[in-house]
Amino acid sequence: MKICVVGAGYVGLVSATIFADWGHDVICVDNDLQKVDQIQAGNLPVYEPGLPERVDRNTQANRLRFSTDLANSIADRELVMIAVGTPAGDDGHPNLTALWNVVKSLKGFARKDLAVAVKSTVPVGTCAAISQFMNHQSAAHFDVISTPEFLRQGTAIADFLSPDRMIVGCQSDNAKQLMKILFEPLECPVVYTDWQSSEMIKYAANTFLALKISYINTIANLCEAVGANIHQVALGVGLDHRIGPSFLKPGVGFGGSCLPKDTQAIVALGESHDVNVSLFQEVLQVNHEQRMRIVRKLLEQLGDLTGKKIAVLGLSFKPNTNDVREAPSLTVIPRIAQLGGTVVAYDPVVEMETLSQRYPFAPATNVYEALAGADAGVVLTEWEEFYGLDLERVRSSMKYPLLIDGRNLFAPHFMQELGFIYIPVGISDKLQKDAVLPRI
Ligand code: UGA
Q1: What's the gap in Å between 329 CA and the centre of ligand 1?
Q2: Which residue CA neighbors atom 22 of ligand 1 most closely?
Q3: What is the C-alpha separation between 320 and 382, in angstroms, rounded?
Q4: Which residue, 41, 31, 110, is CA-closest to 12?
Q5: Edge to edge, what strands does the sheet with 64-67 contain?
Q6: Is the CB of residue 239 less than 8 Å from the CB of residue 252?
Q7: What is the pLDDT of residue 90?
Q8: What is the crossing angle of helices 126-135 and 195-226, to 10°?
Q9: How many angstroms separate the first and last alpha carbons of the chain?
Q10: Separation between Cα atoms, residue 351 and residue 322, nearest integer Å
Q11: Chain segment 94-151, per-residue pLDDT in tens
């Protein structure tokens, strides 16, 4: 199939590359010339394990090309897939400027009928509006398809190749047939539905995941208060197949370009339709407080942060990505600085020099440098390399051996034996300390 993917972000790049891997002829278009030049020079704008090799393989085989020229790129295509960003706007509604620019250009440039698949996360009603707009007084016919993406950053390729399901919202047999051919290599259930339901499924899925994280973080905070262990609790709860074991890891709250944005969008959607969405407002509030809880723990332990050196480990919103959008680090670091602390941070892949010009921290070249002489270490991202730290070396290099672990990297008793004051999430020795005999 001749496909044009518009948008070279992580969803567009991964989709284009895998379609090419499946033997399709793919052009990936982005209007950012610098980005396209970079990709063509072999430097991908996103850090995604396994992706550079695949891009390389397919560009060498001439199945995958990159361009900034949308008009020429769609000339001989059967399918255009839109995967541009829809970031949160100021009012919580997603900003659809990039999406509508593409839609208008497609309408202007197309010389023949075209299937247009929307992979970007868009508010309910967008595909209907796109179809209406494109087919109004147009010589060509545009068959619009909603096909939301469920891959996660950091595991994007594996997720794309083994999805739990595919969702296809369309209105014609032709569109359905095209999607059947395109996604033939995937062995998963496919839900064919209308545009609105397809768009809603994406929001409903992401907000459920956000809800699950705020739920488990709340339970974790209660565990700390009563001396229960969140690992055991999450295991016991997750084994109920109605609940499921995944997305029950407590931490510093969810971040990234999707869960925060989509939860905000569903709040905005509810408000504009006069539907009570306070449940989701609470999910966002719990998430914000969970980030600030790290700072509270620091204050509880150190009393005052003035003049204290705090080492922050991990800046990206989760491991295996260089993405810092809505990362907990970007709210925690300014707060520490506001309270008088000096932050030294380390992340294995985030471009720290550039980020440190916008946020109050000094970048360290490695994790040991960050922790040397620190009054406290704060773990915000569970990067693989942190699990293998030489903890003896860390403890003896720190000024005060306090480790506030927002990602539960280590076993508490082991850390205590090593001489750390170790504060994980959802685990405390409260019960032992506060043990009170029940009144009988
Ligand atoms: C999320 C969804 O998981 C994908 O299905 C969806 O396709 C994607 O958004 C999107 O809409 O494009 P992603 O943002 O890449 O994917 O990251 P997740 O792995 O979902 O993690 C989101 C946040 O939740 C991270 O900050 C992570 O640390 C946190 N998290 C995740 C937890 O705190 N606990 C968990 O148990 C799981």
Answers
A1: 16
A2: 254
A3: 9
A4: 31
A5: 64-67, 25-29, 2-6, 79-82, 114-118, 142-146, 166-169, 190-193
A6: no
A7: 86
A8: 160
A9: 75
A10: 8
A11: 999 999 999 999 999 999 999 999 999 999 999 999 999 999 999 899 999 999 999 9
258 is a catalytic site residue? yes
Q: Whose CA is nearest to atom 24 of ligand 1?
A: 254
Biggest CA–CA distance in the chain, Å, is 84
pLDDT, tens only, 41-96: 999 999 999 999 999 999 999 999 999 999 999 999 999 999 999 999 989 899 99
Q: List all residues 6 or more positions away from 94 whose beta carbon is below 8 Å from its beta carbon.
A: 86, 87, 88, 121, 122, 123, 261, 265
pLDDT in tens, 386-437: 999 999 999 999 999 999 999 999 999 999 999 999 999 999 877 555 555 5
Which strand ranges, in their side-by-side order, compose the sheet holding 309-313? 362-363, 342-346, 309-313, 376-379, 402-405, 421-423
Q: Judge whether 284 and 263 are in contact, CB under 8 Å.
A: yes
Q: Smallest Cα–Cα separation from 262: which of 121, 367, 132, 130?
A: 121
pLDDT tens per residue, range 347-372 = 999 999 999 999 999 999 999 999 99
Length of the chain: 440
How far away, in angstroms, is 65 Cα from ligand 1 center?
Answer: 29
**Hunting for tokens 């699990």 — which residue is that?**
387
Nearest CA to ligand 1 atom 31: 247
- How far apart, in Å, are the Cα atoms of 88 and each of 35, 153, 228, 318, 389? 22, 18, 37, 19, 37
Amino acid at 7: G
Closest C-alpha among 312, 387, 315, 383 to residue 351: 315
Cα dist. 136→128, 142, 196 in Å? 12, 10, 20
CA-wise closest residue to 423 among 379, 387, 384, 372: 379
Rounded CA separation 197/105 (Å): 26
Q: How many Cβ atoms from other residues are within 10 Å of residue 309's Cβ?
A: 21
Beta strands 114-118; 142-146: pairing state: parallel
Measured from CB, residues less than 6 Å from any atom of ligand 1 are 121, 149-153, 206, 209, 213, 247-249, 251, 254-256, 258-259, 317-318
| pTM for this entry | 0.94
